[in-house]
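ok so I'm stuck.
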Amino acid sequence: MRTLDFARFKPHVVCVETSVLSGAVDREIAHLLEKKGYTVRGGSFPNTIFLDDRMLKLYGGTPQ
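replied:
not stuck anymore, here's the structure
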């Protein structure tokens, strides 16, 4: 995730395996994506789904 060029390729949705062995969420990945303009919008063990903040603004923050 650190090497992805978000200025060139910014997906609307990112699904990332964020679970660590203890079952907790890897906060480093979440923090990185939050800094890049994404918000957690859902997930399932072991994945977290992040949505581009621009999409939240475009659609009023409600699922479409």
